[in-house]
Amino acid sequence: MRVKILRSTRNLVQQSGFKGATVSAIAEDANVATGTLYRHFPSKSALFSEIFRTATEIEVRKVAEAIENNTTVTQQLIAAVNCFSKRALTAPQLAWALIAEPVDPIVDADRLRYRQAYADIFEQLIAAGMQSGEIPNQHKSISAAALVGAMAESLVGPLSPPNKANTDKKKPLVTVKDKEALINSIARFCVQAVTGQEYSL
């Protein structure tokens, strides 16, 4: 039953964010009574926190895996940044929920921890680049945190749900061409930020 509740909650978050994952909607989707939900989770905040942690663990793992088949640090950095951006733009509602959607403070605390998990990946890449001479000496932990912040902030606008300013509901907020340009721009910025060199993708 617990797994069923988690599955329904994740599906709802993926469709309409945490805002759409109300207790009644979760219970209806999972075909359980609301009381059953609270027997497995002490609060909706605890449920959301578990959904957030599980989903973000997958994303962090995918970014870590993306660097494995690349040789130079620059190639690894590009692969990691591109993986983060592509996965976010492929599932924009879920990415918005994970990156920026206003939600319970317990999830905000989870966000900080998982931003650090991403930063750890980039810190290791920067350290390796400094050792190999590909990247100039710098404060690797600050640079890594800055990269994570830049990636997330660059995607907030494109991932944002439609608002009153978006009157044309049929027109996609981000076209395929826009996505490619955005992904390349983020990667280019990140590489230039840590190498100090212009880079063309």
TrEMBL record:
PROSITE patterns: HTH_TETR_1 (PS01081), HTH_TETR_2 (PS50977). Keywords: DNA-binding. Pfam families: TetR_N. InterPro entries: DNA-bd_HTH_TetR-type_CS, Homeodomain-like_sf, HTH-type_TetR-like_transc_reg, HTH_TetR, Tet_transcr_reg_TetR-rel_C_sf. Residues 22-41 bind DNA. Residues 1-59 form the HTH tetR-type domain. The keyword Cytoplasm does not apply. This is TetR/AcrR family transcriptional regulator. It comes from Alkalimarinus alittae.
